[in-house]
Amino acid sequence: MKASIVVLPGDGIGPEVASAGVAVLRQIAERFGHDFTFTEHAIGGDAIDRFGDPLPPATREACLAADAILLGAVGGPKWSDPNAPVRPEQGLLAMRKLLGVFANVRPLKLHPRAAALSPLKPERTKGVDLVFIRELTGGIYFGAKTRTDDAATDECRYTVGEIERVMRHAFDLARTRRKKVTSVDKANVLETSRLWRSVATRIAADYPDVELEHQLVDSMAMHLLTRPADYDVIVTENMFGDILTDEASVLAGSLGLSPSASLGGPGAGVYEPIHGSAPDIAGKALANPLGTILSVAMLLRHSLGLSTEADTVEAAVDYVMENGNLTRDLGGDATTHAVTRAVLDACEAKAEAA
Ligand SMILES: NC(=O)c1ccc[n+]([C@@H]2O[C@H](COP(=O)([O-])OP(=O)(O)OC[C@H]3O[C@@H](n4cnc5c(N)ncnc54)[C@H](O)[C@@H]3O)[C@@H](O)[C@H]2O)c1
Ligand SMILES: CC(C)[C@H](C(=O)O)[C@@H](O)C(=O)O
Ligand SMILES: [Mg+2]
Q: Any binding-site annotation on 242?
């Protein structure tokens, strides 16, 4: 098949992990006879430096015309002055809003070898297989903001429609899995959360085969560590989802392993690892590329409908996780490039065997 893929490398380790993702996509295209074209565009701090805009018009137009978007990461200390007029993260948020990708899917599975690196005991992490659906284009991230010399505000706003559509996404997904949805909110304090909870309860009535439980976000942060295997699909608002998914990634051994797909818009999906630009390791070839490579598998499956190819990439990552020398975050001493090479070799072997 023909597909036009926009690549947004961004900042810090963004370009290092994005090029790993592109290498895997190129190999899949060659092996399975697809015609993928890749166009790189600026986003984040890189785009501020080159164009004075974290999401320049050329990037916007390319994203709107793409079949899928692969993003590295944005941000870093160079652009982090709290008084700066423009920030790299604004480019990422504007891109998500532009594409209308309201459902951010963040799966978490535990590979046995990575589970050994988890801070939790093996009996606690056994059987963990959950998916977060994080609402991505609403809430406090996108509400009105004010700032004076002595005060600042961030408005948190959700409409019924915004909650309904992400809730349906979660329930539809749960139907294909273990049929349980945990809706996370702060309904004991926040009005937006009380609306969230009432919409969740109403939507659940359309899915009598799926169990719904409500959970407050503070205790959810604890339960993720004490009984993570009890969860199937976890749906939550934008900021709670951001925080809980970084926490959850540690259960799997490293933040560098967690992929994501941002879906639900009329156009392309956005695929990115959940981690950031990791300024502390940027430029040192220490970045774990597996979160990005697993995001590429999600891209193949969700935006291009290529499930055999997606399975091949996931099987190759499993093989490398089991047998390979891994990056430092997973206890190894392999470079980003060496791990990517190992995945490419494993893809080749899996495709050969298929
Ligand atoms: N989607 C994105 O573009 C995105 C996501 C999160 C944070 N950020 C931005 O990234 C910048 C840095 O944020 P931060 O330091 O709080 O979070 P971070 O996710 O960049 O890093 C947190 C820690 O995890 C490590 N880490 C992250 N990814 C890794 C990988 N692939 N391999 C090995 N180790 C990895 C880092 O070295 C660091 O110690 C900030 O500007 C933030 O806004 C961007
Ligand atoms: C960089 C930042 C705006 C972003 C977010 O909060 O959504 C990041 O933390 C993420 O998880 O993708
Ligand atoms: Mg985050």
A: yes
Provide the domain count of the chain: 2
**How far is the centre of ligand 3, averaged over its atoms, from the C-alpha of 87 (Å)?**
15
Which CATH number covers residue 177? 3.40.718.10
The verdict on whether residue 77 carries a ligand-binding annotation is: yes
Helix (H) or strand (E) segment spanning residue 268: none
The C-alpha atoms of residue 301 and residue 263 are separated, in whole angstroms, by: 12
pLDDT in tens, the chain (354 residues): 999 999 999 999 999 999 999 999 999 999 999 999 999 999 999 999 999 999 999 999 999 999 999 999 999 999 999 999 999 999 999 999 999 999 999 999 988 887 788 888 888 888 999 999 999 999 999 999 999 999 999 999 999 999 999 999 999 999 999 999 999 999 999 999 999 999 999 999 999 999 999 999 999 999 999 999 999 999 999 999 999 999 999 998 899 999 999 999 999 999 999 999 999 999 999 999 999 999 999 999 999 999 999 999 999 999 999 999 999 999 999 999 999 999 999 999 988 887
140 lies in a domain? yes
Ligand 1 atom nearest the C-alpha of 290 is 31
Give the domain extent around 273. 1-106+254-354
Per DSSP, the three-state class of 21 is helix
Task: Among 251, 266, 296, identify where a domain stops.
Answer: 251
CA distances from 52 to 49, 71, 92, 268 (A): 6, 19, 15, 25
Q: Are 249 and 131 contacting, i.e. CB atoms less than 8 angstroms apart? A: no
Look up the ipTM and state it. 0.99
